[in-house]
Amino acid sequence: MKARDIINILEKKFPKINAEEWDNIGLLIGDYDKEVKKIQFSLDATLESIENAISEKVDMLITHHPIIFKAIKDITEQNILGKKIRNLIKNDINVYSIHTNLDSSIEGLNDYVLKKIGISEYKILDFDEEKNCGIGRIFKLNEEKNLKKFIEELKLKLKILNLRVISNDLNKKIKKVALINGSAMNYWKKAKKEKVDLFITGDVSYHDALDALENGLSVIDFGHYESEYFFYEILIEELKDNNLEFLVFNREPIFKFY
C-alpha cells in the first residue's frame, strides 16, 4: 500500500485543515509513493524510536508530535535533529505526523480521552463551526463528586500513577469539567468563563496554576505524555483492514516521580 493511500485514509477522518495554524503536520520526511507494509507508531520521533524503527525495518513512522516544528538551518550529524533526519533518510523511512488535527477532530484524541473515562456527551470548548471541530471538551458528570474521588477514578481509568492537583479543597464538589489533552493551560480562562468546576490538561506551569487557583478554578495536570501516548489506538482502528503490520514504540515518560 502506498504511503499516500494511508495518508488519505487518515486525513479523510482527521483533515489537515483541522490543525492549528502554528502546527506542522503531514508527511514531513519521505515519499508519498513509497510502498508501505510496516508502520511504527510513536508519540515522538526520539532517537530511541528511530533506532527501533530502523532495527525493525519499518517503512513508515507515524508520530503525534511533529519531528520538524521550526525552520531548520542545517541537517548535520553534529546536532540531534540533523542526526535523526539523516538516519531516517538513509534508511528510507517515511515520517508522518498527525497532531492537532487529531486532537480537535470529532472522534479524535480529545474525544478518545473522554471515551476512556466513560464520557459520551459533551460540547466543544473552542468550536470552529465551519470546520465542525475544535480544541477542548466540556462535559457534566452524572452526579456531583468530591474532587478527591474524581481524582482516584481518573487515575484508574487512564492508568496514571500520579496527578498534579491545583486546588484549595480536595473535598470540593465538582459537576462540570473541561478537558484538553496535551498542553493547553492557555485555555483555562476560556474554561472558567464556561463556569466549569474543574479544568484538566497537561504541562501546567507554576504561574498559570497560581492564576487559575486565585481565580477559583481547580486544575488537574494529567501529563502531556500520559494524556496522548495512546493516540495510536485511534489510528490502528482506521487502518486495520488494509493488510498492514503495526508496532508501537514509546520511550518512558520524561518526568519521574519519587
TrEMBL record:
Domain of life of the source: Bacteria
Keyword annotations: Metal-binding
Binding site for a divalent metal cation 1: H65, D103, H224, E228
Organism for this UniProt entry: Fusobacterium nucleatum subsp. nucleatum
GO CC, alphabetical: cytoplasm
Family to which the UniProt record says this protein belongs: Belongs to the GTP cyclohydrolase I type 2/NIF3 family.
GO molecular function per UniProt: metal ion binding
Annotated InterPro entries: DUF34/NIF3, DUF34/NIF3_sf
Positions bound to a divalent metal cation 2: H64
Protein name: Transcriptional regulator
